[in-house]
Amino acid sequence: MFDATTTFPLSVVAAILLLINWRGLHGTFWRALGKRFRFWSFPIYLLVFASVLATLCKPIVFWQLPAWLGHASTSRLFQISASVDAVAFLFEYVLGVYLQVYLITVCFVWIRGLSFNEESLFQFAIRRFSYVLKWSGVVLFVGTLFVHLPRVLAYFMNIPDVLDYLPIERALMCGLILAFSSVQISLVLHNENLREALRAHRDFLRKNAGRFGWFLLIAAIHFVFLTACDVIVRNAIADRMIALLGWKIIYACLRGLITGWLLASWVCLYRQCEKGRAGQESWIQY
After folding, report:
1. How far is CA 258 from CA 22, 101, 214, 253, 261, in A?
2. Which residue, of 53, 63, 184, 232, has the greatest Cβ tally within 10 A?
């Protein structure tokens, strides 16, 4: 689900809510970091806080770029905007991971038939998110090193054809996440460290490679058809701005709906494979 949805500009609203400690999420996040990472909680918190500030600055920077053209060189403005965007990406990705953790938690309590209220579930998802943070750090490190850092450095020095490699780099990032796709859900549902989650992922693939492959194929078919519909509709709309805006809203809702449905299906499949029950039910009982 890495490329299924984007968190900007929702990340700006989330950054504000986090700073004002909406529903106690800021305090819960700090306590969960301290309990999980001890000494390292403070530098991790500073990094997240810096990315939150960059997220708040991002819309201001891009909004004011035309007004700043006469006061600074174009190369300088590109350097500033690229740097802010790269730092803001950290919080945008972290927010996307937290939303996935929250949705996984919702699906889990739903299939278990547990009762919950929204505020306590938000805080519970924050605590579970602290277990996922180490794996998210690995993905962020690889993504920053191979995708965002070369693009930012290209504005400060001459790096030939740096943008030509971005599609390959993004494809490799998606491949990395797909190759270790059960690590995140394993960390969400179990009190384990990253090494144990990687070991569990290896066992999961060894026992359920066929079912996992079919799930990836079905998910890919959904997004291929959705992307094809987007291309067809955009070509038909052409320059009709109102129609294009309406389709963008519909398309975003469709992507969110498909992503949420596939995520819920993934939680159900993972839990069934964990219990060794996958394939026993010949039909779904509602």
Report:
1. 28, 17, 17, 9, 5
2. 184
Which parts of the chain fold into alpha helices (H)?
A: 10-19, 25-37, 41-68, 74-112, 118-143, 149-153, 166-179, 181-189, 194-237, 241-275
HSE of 273, CA atoms in CB hemisphere, 13 A: 22
- Cβ proximity of 14 and 22 under 8 Å: no
| φ and ψ of 87, to 5 deg | -70, -40
220-to-6, 95, 118, 189, 225 alpha-carbon distances in Å = 18, 24, 31, 25, 9
**pLDDT digits over 24-67, tens only?**
889 989 998 888 888 889 999 999 999 999 999 988 887 877 77
Q: For residue 257, count CB atoms less than 10 angstroms from its CB and return exposed for 0-12, middle for 13-18, buried for 19 or more.
A: exposed
Reported in sequence order, the residue ranges of the chain that DSSP labels E, i.e. its strands, are none
Any idea what DSSP says for residue 160? T
Distance between CA atoms of 183 and 97, rounded to whole angstroms? 13
Q: Please give the Cα distance from 137 to 139 (Å, whole number).
A: 5
Token pair, residue 231, equals 């291309």
Instruction: Give the model confidence (pLDDT) of 158-182 as tens digits.
Output: 777 776 777 788 788 888 888 898 9
Cis peptide before 9 (omega within 30 of 0): yes
